[in-house]
Recover the amino acids of this structure.
């Protein structure tokens, strides 16, 4: 599947979070969602990115945006990761099925061929979507470089202003 372009409707999904609770994109209806896809819990880049979003969470919430992370790791892995780094937002487990492909990562176009040390394999390409209160993609960051990314997202949320107009409600707290 290909990446979702700004202006298009974000794909609906339901996945378990780090507590095992089922979470859907609809849980954040009426709010902006910073939906970031990352390769793996407890790796250096992914840990830095998660902690940067954790540290930006209060500012993003004031702007009307919630943070949600997605990776192919398990609920148990996410629970340990969230606890180890005091992450106060939902981490969703898009565990690959029988085909070996995580469905949500694939539907958002972030499950792509990667290469390392001359070997190719399928994996998550670090990507962030900003989804508006109406469920449409407002902005997308491709092949994210971790350093400064959370601040860049917060700046974009502030500049766009679309999230500040959203009512501050959520079906469930992250």
């Amino acid at each position: 599947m290909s990446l979702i372009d700004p202006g298009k409707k974000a794909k609906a999904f339901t996945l378990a979070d780090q507590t095992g609770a089922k979470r859907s994109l609809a849980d954040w209806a009426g709010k902006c969602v910073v939906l970031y896809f990352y390769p793996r819990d407890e790796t250096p880049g992914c840990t830095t990115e998660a902690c940067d979003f954790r540290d930006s969470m209060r500012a993003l919430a004031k702007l009307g945006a919630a943070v949600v992370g997605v990776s192919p790791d398990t609920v148990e892995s996410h629970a340990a990761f969230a606890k180890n780094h005091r992450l106060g937002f939902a981490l969703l487990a898009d565990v690959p099925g029988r085909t070996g492909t995580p469905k949500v990562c694939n539907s958002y176009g972030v499950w792509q061929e990667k290469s390392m040390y001359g070997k190719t394999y399928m994996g998550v390409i670090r990507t962030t979507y900003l989804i508006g209160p109406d469920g449409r993609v407002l902005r997308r960051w491709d092949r994210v470089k971790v350093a400064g990314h959370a601040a860049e997202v917060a700046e974009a949320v502030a500049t766009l202003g679309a999230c500040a107009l959203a009512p501050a409600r959520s079906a469930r707290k992250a």
